[in-house]
Amino acid sequence: MSKGMPPLTATDFVAVDDGNCSPRFARMTTYNMPATAELATSSLVPLGLVVQPLADVEYGERPVPVVDAGPSGPVRCSRCRGYINSFVTFVDGGRKFVCNLCQFENPVPNEYFANLDMNGRRVDIDQRAELLFGSVEFVATKEYFSKTPEEASYLFVIDVTWTAIQSGMVRAAVDALKSF
Fold this sequence. Notes:
- This protein is an alpha+beta fold and 180 residues long.
- The protein has helices spanning 37-43, 129-132, 162-167, 169-178; strands at residues 26-28, 49-51, 66-67, 89-91, 96-98, 105-107, 137-138.
- The protein contains 4 helices and 7 strands; from the N terminus they run βαβββββαβαα.
- The strands form 3 sheets. A 3-stranded antiparallel beta sheet has the order 4-5-6, with no helix packed on it.
- The chain is extended.
- The model has no long low-confidence stretch (mean pLDDT 90).
């Protein structure tokens, strides 16, 4: 996916996560960015990002890997708190990593350390989904729970304008919610 343009939204495709997430999970509203600040200001191209972190994967696509980093949680940048990912750079023989978000050089925890090969890649990269793929799920540690998780609450907003009532949309929505 990272070698060219992402497929159009209405196109059937099989995404291969090669370090960039699938366009099913994140998609920019434009394929090309202005090269300079002046061009961006004069062109007034709106910029947005559509994010669907729980989008379904299609048949033939690899499911999103789940990473359990243990009780200490996933490795994070000590400056910006960004998570370890496929775009960080390991330096100093693997003892430090440079955050791809803020360029801060962080020490690698002892339990996460691995040597680098002659190309500067970790020797255990094939066993580290968070370093191979653009989309991973990290198992939440206790620090993320300030209280016991509660059952989810739902709020449904239904258009009750005259047109919606006349078209039968309100009745259909209510019937669907009753069968939910």
